[in-house]
């Protein structure tokens, strides 16, 4: 119990640090922005603590199947950190900022072809946006896409090579997929594979849909992406973080479906060496 509470506290602090990263790195942060970010970080930290301190499932998926959530949090932190470095480099250039900007520029130029997500993202900017802001957005989008692809690659390696989730401990579908009811709607494997395909498809489509939604929201709210550095960092980070999260969820659900199928085959063969899978 004590170790579980300690782990929940550590995770809550990590979430608070991740959310506060842009405010800590971007120079000239106003007091109002700091207060808003702190309030959001506290709410997110309290939510994380309550989820991991509880024995019963809540809203966070794959809570007991590390490092699924750790990979996502690290990916978001690295993205926010590097994008904040890009924004802050306009005031004070350093060797790290030059390397980060050069890497983002190369990736951004490579991805800026017709009908690409990055090209669609850039075209949603107002026509009177200056060239420097467009170039900065291109660099940030390139970095965000690069980190997203690396995140997917790392998780795919964990799934295939290290047999994620860890087979040395029991995997409970109810705890790790709290919003998925395995007792309704037909065969659980069929439903898992269907939801997996839907999530993977959404992972491909979200980078195209989100810029359009952003443009519609900006028109109704009469705001612009480039008006605030904090807004730019968060929007570009979430532009790739949400699709990567959905894509990872699809991969994870497909893996769970494979585990259930393999266990059924062992049961049919009349051989179950060790019952380490709990379907509910």
How does this model look, in words?
Keywords: Membrane, Transmembrane, Transmembrane helix. This protein has nine helices and two strands. The protein is an all-alpha fold and 280 residues long. It folds into two domains: 55 residues; 202 residues, no CATH class. A two-stranded parallel ribbon has the order 1-2. The two termini are 22 Å apart.
What percentage of residues falls in helices of 4 or more residues? over 70%
**Lateral arrangement of strands in the main beta sheet:** 1-2
- Helix/strand class: mainly alpha
Mean pLDDT: 84
Keywords: Membrane, Transmembrane, Transmembrane helix
Transmembrane segments: 12-30, 36-59, 71-90, 135-159, 198-216, 236-257
Please specify the SSE layout and strand pairing.
Layout: H1 2-25, H2 31-53, H3 68-88, H4 95-111, H5 117-123, H6 131-160, E1 171-172, H7 173-176, H8 188-221, H9 229-268, E2 277-278
Parallel strand pairs: 1-2
Summarize, please:
By secondary structure, the protein is an all-alpha fold.
Structure keywords:
9 helices; 280 residues; 2 strands; single chain; mainly alpha; two-stranded parallel ribbon
